[in-house]
Amino acid sequence: MFIQRNDPPPLCKRAAGACSTRNSRMFFHKILASLVAFSGTTSAQSITATNTNREIPTLSPQINALPSLTPTVLDPTAPDSQACPGYKAANVADSGSGFTADLTIAGSNCQAFGNDISDLVLEVQYQTKERLNVRIYPKHLAPENRTRYVIPESVVEQPEWDGKTTAGSSDLKLDWSNDPTFQFRISRVSTGEELFSTYGHVVVYEDQYLELVTNMIDDYNIYGLAENIHDFRLGNNYTQTYYAVDAGNSIDGNVYGTIPFYQETRYNNGAGTTSHGLYARNAHGQEWLLRNSTLTYRTLGGSFDLYFLSGQDAAGKSSALTTIAQFQKGCIGLPAMQMYWTFGFHQCRWGYENISVLQDVVEGHRAANIPLESIWNDLDIYYLYRDFTHDQNTYPVPAFAEFIESLHANGQHYVPIMDSNIYVNNPGNASDVYATFERGADLETYIRDPTTGDFYYGDNWPGFSVWADFLLQSSYNWWRDEILLYHKTLPFDGIWVDLNEASSFCAGSCGNGKLDQNPAHPPFLLPGDPLTFDFNYPEGFNVTNVTEAASASSASSSQAAALSTAPILPIPTTTTQGRTEPTPGIRNLDFPPYVIDNVQAGHALGKGSIAPNATHNDAYNTTEYEMHNLFGYQIANATYHALVELFPGRRPFTVTRSTFAGSGKVTSHWGGDNTSTFGSMFLSIAQALTFMMSGIPMFGADTCGFSRNTDYELCSRWMELSAFFPFYRNHNVKATISQEAYRWSSVAEASRRAISVRYSMLTYMYTLFYYAHTKGETVMRALAWEFPEDSSLRETYSQFLLGPSILVTPVLEPNVDYVNGVFPGVGEGVRWFDWYDLSEVKAAAQENVTLSAPLEHINVHVKGGTILALQEPRLTTAETRNTPYTLLVALDGQAKASGSLYLDDGESLEPNATRLVKFDYTDSCLSFSSEGDYYASQPLGNVTVTGLGEPVNPHNSTWTPVTCKPKSIHLKYGGGDSDPATVAVGYNGGVLHVSNLAQFSQGGAFQKDLSLCFEW
């Protein structure tokens, strides 16, 4: 097993007429081509560093050369693994919570993509009423081989039996047969609905290849399998590859994260929607093949450790939201609660050259009256890209620390980047001293090269680099100490961890014998190097900016011509190699017989990352082959616990790129290196929804796009959209234009308006996070989750909900001033109100409504039946939080509404005081009561009620507004009557405004219960 640690261990539309499903999918396919067209790579040349007087050697591209492999899913000559013999079950024994059995291979060895394992153990455990676990692993596991197959609980949380559930009390049951070989199926006890079935298929278990095939219903609906950049509904002609990779905007390919969980929705021909889920606890490289009638699960090793979720609530009703909550609560752990300030707007760029530029950005936002909560730095702050350093020419200490303290004085914050690689000192240069590396080297805490026994020397931004081995306690201690030491010079407020796939720019331990060349330039041009300016602009730019588009095209051609005459390194040559053949007794780690469809050139596992045969320092020399997809989780966990020590009692704020199932307990996530295209903006919604499912709700995309140039139209639309994502950050790369919102008047106005809405409802978003943190509820929601009986919504992801109550309909294409959207539930009496003027939407069931959407406007609607506690938006979250409360009451079809508000100090890891306020509007009376002892001093200033009137036909949301304001108001605050004589009342068109209430709650709006009744 892995070495144990003393510190906390890692845990693990279709509408009537013109339908929104059609619009979403047509638009997706229209933009997909524009995204794929910009996925090329750039060659390398020798570059002179801008902040040093000596030339930095450039790595030879030959070190990147690897055999070119054909992914097995694309190889028609690959063996048919379903021709393998399968297994027979025997020696079945009751375990109290389920049963165990032996599985023995039912024929001669197959060796499709590895060495067959003849003897297996089957464990079936009814862990909780809603969760059934099926494990299959080798019967004879020597300690030194165990970690090849079974992920230790000390690394990834392993769900356990609740101590009481049996087959007789479970929602689920497992049936199995040995005819002709072992096969099993999972079904619901209540209805017999079959959820998963391997009947008709064999189980394949080899040392480098596992396979299960399940039968699927026609036209099935599967969601999840994060991380992917794809339609939210995954479809039935899609392969999800899992191998953490440094490849931005990887459409339909493997990306940064590995969260092997899906949720399936079945509409059952209108007979009642059902939902269930499956989590496969395996960290190896893997693929999920979604095909017309089957789903095939294949991994490069490990074990079958499957958790089937019924999705049923206490009443026996199943739903997507319940399934997702069961996954988070029972399988991977609930997400961390975030600090209040982190929900503000963040600004970052790779290209803030010095403190003066950073100060200008802060002042630019203030001058434009655009809220700015936090300023971030990319790699610019570091000396030659080395973590925990300072470029004393551009970011000198103590001037830099003084700048950050000035942010703190204004209620603002600062977050720096920290890459996962550590530069290695040049042994031939006595002046090349990097203490961070040396301290780690003294502890021998880095991953190793098995061919030399020395450290594994890969390559990243600073040159030849090493990576910490987070299977060691010493690595946790070293990383913590470096963070604590760095904070003494730079008073940051959170940490952004990047390149933690872990990414290496060469193949193998390429620094062996070459460390005297350090610092070495990566084997490709970097943004900001000569002749690297990006002249690409978004779709539609040639329409809105004809002259500038022509100039950009001309400049791009000139740069390309100049680049072609520059001394560019030759393109690396590769040899073509087919699949490797399984060798008895040997595992080929670098080139396993089954080739997953890795997006890196050549598809090899060692391209762009630490080689699979690199070894760790635990007792069994566990390899990267087993650990690769866990590196991001481990360093995020180490960073989280370092911040716990740095800021005792305060919630850590970390953002990381590579994730695994359970990462949400210790980190948040951004969508990685996207592009400045409408297509990338569109797909960010689906990406966000998959992370809501995955227990990482603090998610956001690089607003306005990271690579390529944005323009005023795209940036306006994206600033509007991201205002309703939990994590809201604008970030882009150097060698492109600056894209801070204040640089265009239209973007500035769009941003002010959208942020005003966001900051008004910060309390709502914070409350949603409280429920995510305590119950596993989702923050952003697919329309289909909230309206599960409407099958027309299964592919509607150009719109989304924030919680159950806020509907967001963004513009996602260029050169339009309108947007189409549906208003779900209107046919069943659901009411929707425009956020801005509180007017009620008039729409028919499943109607695709055309909404006005000028450039500075994003459509936002409030669901009837909602009560929201709002505050006045200011330039920071702290200022906003100190303003009086307003209650917005939007009535449903029965003239009722409800809501809640969670309050605490906004930062404590374990708050000493909390308050939960419950709101209700029934029979023309608004009331609230609260529990807890958190004191919020802000008074209640105003109450607005919309939707007042008499229903003409509730089934199509037609109401006649009341024609006059109330005859009288009865106000009780804290149990006693209050004189409403000084209360101001206004009424117009079904909207009632009650103001001047602050006089009754100067001691705090929610310190006492309130009742406010209206007589008409």
Automatic annotation (TrEMBL):
GO BP field: carbohydrate metabolic process
Q: Which UniProt keywords apply?
A: Glycoprotein, Glycosidase, Hydrolase, Signal
Q: What is its EC number?
A: 3.2.1.20
Q: Which reaction does it catalyse?
A: Hydrolysis of terminal, non-reducing (1->4)-linked alpha-D-glucose residues with release of alpha-D-glucose
Q: Which InterPro entries match?
A: Gal_mutarotase_sf_dom, GH, Glyco_hydro_31_C, Glyco_hydro_31_CS, Glyco_hydro_31_TIM, Glyco_hydro_b
Q: Which Pfam families does the UniProt record give?
A: Glyco_hydro_31_2nd, Glyco_hydro_31_3rd
Q: Name one GO molecular function term.
A: carbohydrate binding
Residues in Glycoside hydrolase family 31 TIM barrel domain copies: 335-768
Q: Where is the Glycosyl hydrolase family 31 C-terminal domain?
A: 776-868
Q: Any transmembrane segments, and where?
A: none
Q: Which CDD domains match?
A: GH31_MGAM_SI_GAA (cd06602)
Class in the EC hierarchy, top level: hydrolase
Protein family membership: Belongs to the glycosyl hydrolase 31 family.
Q: What is this protein called?
A: alpha-glucosidase
